Amino acid sequence: MKNILFITCLLVLGSTRFSIAQLDGKQFLSGSAGINFNNSNPASLGATHNYSYNFDISLGKFKSETRAVGWRISNSLGGGKMVYNIYNGSEVEQYERDGINRFGIGLGRFWHFYKQFNDKLGIYGGPEAGVSFLNTKSYSNQNESRSLMENRVQQIQLSLGLSAGFYYTFSEKWWVTASLAFANPVSVDYSFQRGRNVVTDENGKSNELTYRFSPVFNFPNVGLGLRYFYNR
Question: Model-level pTM?
């Protein structure tokens, strides 16, 4: 957390003495994405697989030569096929679960400060605020018990955080960005949880409100993206 606070303070203080040429008033579109897919074929359970993607799109504008503000939209999705063995005495029952098990969407506002080291490379960082919704489904079972629990959670989160990264200038219109770290010192979560025993069809529900006012810091957190300046 100290590292990212130091970077942010450096950017804020340094922005009064350093100027990035010809960025004031420029509008930009940024995006990053990730895709994952894997499968396995264990002898005891049969073939399984899972897949996921995540992406975010940012729309922003430089309010000065060293400060930009904007909005970010993010989305993630995951799914796959899992197989579970349920033991009932000397018998073994096999349950397959296939389909989407994770979906998330978020909207955020950012205020970033920039400092350039040379005509190509620089750093950025600053505060962010956001709201997100996450819907997940997971399964758990215990050996030697006739139980396969399906857990569904719907969560809404409000958060305040800090982020930092690097950028590299390819041309007047194109940058490559690389996120370096992020922290969420403040967050409030509300979740609605439903549980069901797939084997016995027993149900349960619960609501939960949680909050956090302490730093949760991730460093390094490397992710690549592209930025396009469209009003040049």
Answer: 0.78
Q: What is the Cα–Cα distance from 159 to 183, expressed in whole angstroms?
A: 10
Please enumerate, as own/partner, the contacts of 88-92 that have beta carbons within 8 Å and a separation of 24 or more: 88/146
CA-angle at 135, arms to 134 and 136, nearest 5°: 115
Burial of residue 36 (number of CB atoms within 10 Å: 0-12, 13-18, 19+) = exposed
* Domain 2-229 grouped into CATH 2.40.160: yes
pLDDT tens profile 212-223: 776 666 655 567
Q: How far is the C-alpha of 31 from the C-alpha of 114, rounded, in Å?
A: 18
Helix/strand/coil (H/E/C) assignment for every residue in 110-146 = EEEEEEECCCCEEEEEEEEEEEEEEEEEEEEECCCCC
* Burial of residue 10, with CB atoms counted within 10 A of its CB: 0-12 exposed, 13-18 middle, 19 or more buried: middle
pLDDT tens across 57-67, in order? 999 999 999 99
Question: Locate tokens 């098990």: which residue?
Answer: 101
* CA nearest to 228, candidates 34, 27, 25, 55: 27
Pairwise CA distance, residues 169 & 49, whole Å: 39
CA-to-CA separations, 162 to 1, 136, 210, in angstroms, rounded: 9, 26, 20
Q: How big is the chain by its Cα radius of gyration, in Å? A: 23
Q: Cα angle at 146 between 144 and 151, to 5 degrees?
A: 115
